[in-house]
């Protein structure tokens, strides 16, 4: 059981270098009770790459989480500013509207 939620999303933007990257970290529990550190990164607007590291102990996962956090901060990644007016999902018959291919909207 994970004692605390660990989730972090960073961005690094530099218009001069045409750079718009994201980096996300989270610690989650697997179905088998192991602790898993999930890393996602890539260009903003893409799915990016995903790597998972499994640990038997939460402490080891937190140590790697903090090491990666420090390294990314040193490279210029910063937390994304909070949106002033966050969009809420539109409800259709009690279910959130989900965009489908070719701009159609359906429900999930």
Structural notes for this entry:
This protein has 108 residues and is an alpha+beta fold. The protein has a domain at 6-80: q64v53_bacfr protein fold, CATH 2.20.140.10. The protein has one helix and eight strands. The chain has one helix spanning 58-74; strands spanning 6-14, 19-29, 35-43, 49-55, 78-79, 91-92, 95-99, 105-107. The longest helix has 17 residues, at 58-74. Residues 98-108 have low confidence and may be disordered.
Key words describing this protein structure:
q64v53_bacfr protein fold; 8 strands; 108 residues
Q: Examine the coordinates and then state which fold CATH places here, giving the name of the CATH topology of the domain at 6-80.
A: q64v53_bacfr protein fold
| Biggest sheet architecture | 5 strands, antiparallel
Q: What is the CATH superfamily classification of the domain at 6-80?
A: WGR domain
Helix fraction, binned, reads: 10-25%
Q: What is the tally of helical segments?
A: 1
Task: Please give the order of strands in the largest beta sheet.
Answer: 4-3-2-1-5
**Morphology call:** elongated
> What is the alpha-carbon Rg in Å?
17 Å
**Unreliable stretches, pLDDT < 50, 5 or more residues?**
98-108
Q: Which class of the domain at 6-80 in CATH terms? A: Mainly Beta
* Class from secondary-structure proportions: alpha+beta
What fraction of residues sit in β-strands? 35-45%
Mean pLDDT metric = 81
Number of strands: 8
Write a brief structural summary.
The protein has one helix spanning 58-74; strands spanning 6-14, 19-29, 35-43, 49-55, 78-79, 91-92, 95-99, 105-107. It is α+β, with helices and mostly antiparallel strands. The strands form two sheets. The chain has a five-stranded antiparallel β-sheet, covered by helices on one side. Strands 6-7-8 form a three-stranded antiparallel β-sheet, with no helix packed on it.
């Amino acid at each position: 059981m994970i004692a605390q939620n660990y989730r972090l999303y960073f961005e690094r933007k530099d218009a001069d270098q045409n750079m718009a990257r994201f980096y996300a970290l989270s610690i989650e529990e697997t179905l088998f009770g192991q602790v898993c550190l999930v890393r996602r990164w890539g260009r903003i607007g893409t799915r990016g790459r995903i790597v998972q590291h499994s640990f038997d102990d939460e402490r080891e996962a937190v140590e790697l989480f903090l090491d990666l956090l420090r390294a990314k901060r040193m490279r210029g990644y910063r937390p994304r500013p909070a949106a002033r007016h966050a969009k809420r999902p539109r409800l259709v018959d009690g279910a959130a509207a989900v965009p489908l291919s070719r701009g159609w909207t359906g429900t999930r």
